[in-house]
UniProtKB/TrEMBL annotation:
It comes from Bartonella apis. Keywords: Hydrolase, Signal. This is Hydrolase of the alpha/beta superfamily. Residues 60-77, 264-277 have a biased composition (Basic and acidic residues). GO terms for molecular function: hydrolase activity, acting on ester bonds. It comes from the Bacteria. The keyword 4Fe-4S does not apply. Residues 54-77, 262-282 are annotated as: Disordered. Residues 1-24 form the signal peptide.
Length: 344
């Protein structure tokens, strides 16, 4: 399998100016070229835009700044927000139409399993700088969700209600800024894009599918999507969905079979957390779409996996589903413990 060209990229926004992958600093290893680019995100009156590269702060000069990974940083009268893109490109000539593009959310955890077998595709995983898990959790709660009141959020012991409601802003960032830069600078086929998300990211992917119409991606992969979010508001959007003429997108929905609670969930708050997570899930969504003949969709359940342990095999499934559909076989470990694929 080909070696990969890998990039770790800091992304920033301010209206009207362009950044560029081409200006990134280079390092070389035996099998990869690693690029880093430090630019920042500025949100002014809700608009998203790009700052010139020289306006960005080098994270290497301020380790504490990256470690804290605060969602918003003040810079004069502007609010700055950083993202990190993890990018891998096969070290081989691209086909005439370009490589398939696989776009993943939660890049800090999804990038490594996505490149494990060096697929013949460009991989772009959107994540956050720094390693502080609590801060990353706070940021993804905002970026991947619609607004939800605290009583609709399954909070763990001692956890404050996170800020929510940034999904439209984040989707605009992806569609209007990140993707155009990818199409401009990387050898990809813009008609062959796969979008993967897990948990809240899976819900984000499902909402993106419903809102895309015929201009959506070729493939959507939602792993254990958080259909429960904000009182199952997604189900209302699903009920109002009408398949657009000429829709060619394909959809893979996968769920976990073992239901577990985070170690911080106590007996006191276990029932409220369970109640908020109950109700329709990814399987129900797949069934509704199948009956409505709304999309070419496949459902699969990892009966021996929980919400966390299903992530890596779900990513591998997504890659095979998108890049080798004719031979798609879900990950099976152990082989006899999983339910057969339900092709919708």
């Amino acid at each position: 399998m080909s070696a990969l060209f890998v990039a770790s990229l800091f992304f920033s926004l301010f209206f009207g100016l362009s950044c560029g992958f081409a200006n990134a600093e280079n390092e070389h290893t035996e099998k990869m070229r690693i690029l880093t680019k430090d630019i920042e995100v500025s949100l002014v009156d809700g608009n998203i835009a790009l700052l010139p590269p020289e306006a960005a702060k080098n994270p290497a000069e301020n380790k504490e700044d990256e470690k804290e990974n605060t969602p918003e940083k003040s810079s004069g009268n502007e609010k700055m927000r950083r993202y990190r893109l993890f990018i891998a490109v096969p070290e081989k000539p691209a086909p005439r139409e370009g490589f398939p593009l696989v776009l993943l959310l939660d890049g800090n955890t999804t990038f490594k399993p996505a490149i494990e077998k060096a697929p013949d595709a460009v991989i772009v995983a959107i994540g956050y700088p720094g390693q502080e898990k609590k801060e990353i959790v706070k940021r993804r709660f905002y970026d991947l969700t619609s607004y939800a009141p605290a009583d609709k959020i399954p909070l763990r012991e001692g956890m404050e209600a996170p800020k929510t409601g940034g999904e439209k802003e984040f989707r605009s960032l992806i569609e209007k800024k990140i993707l155009p830069e990818i199409f401009k600078h990387l050898p990809v086929n813009r008609d062959n894009v796969t979008f993967f998300g897990h948990s809240l990211g899976g819900l984000f992917v499902m909402k993106s599918f419903l809102s895309a119409g015929t201009h959506g991606f070729a493939t959507y992969c939602a792993a254990d999507p958080s259909i429960w979010w904000n009182g199952h508001e997604f189900m209302e959007k699903l009920a109002a969905y009408n398949k657009p003429e000429g829709l060619k997108s394909r959809l893979l929905i996968e769920t976990s079979g073992i239901k577990t609670h985070h170690k911080s969930v106590t007996e006191t708050n276990k029932k409220p957390v369970k109640d908020l997570h109950s109700g329709p899930n990814g399987k129900d969504v797949s069934e509704i779409l199948r009956k409505a003949k709304a999309v070419d969709n496949t459902f699969y359940s990892f009966s021996d996996k929980n919400h966390g342990t299903m992530l890596a095999p779900a990513i591998k499934d997504c890659l095979q589903f998108a890049l080798n559909a004719k031979n798609f076989k879900p990950q099976r470990s152990p082989a006899n413990s999983l339910q057969p694929v339900e092709k919708k």
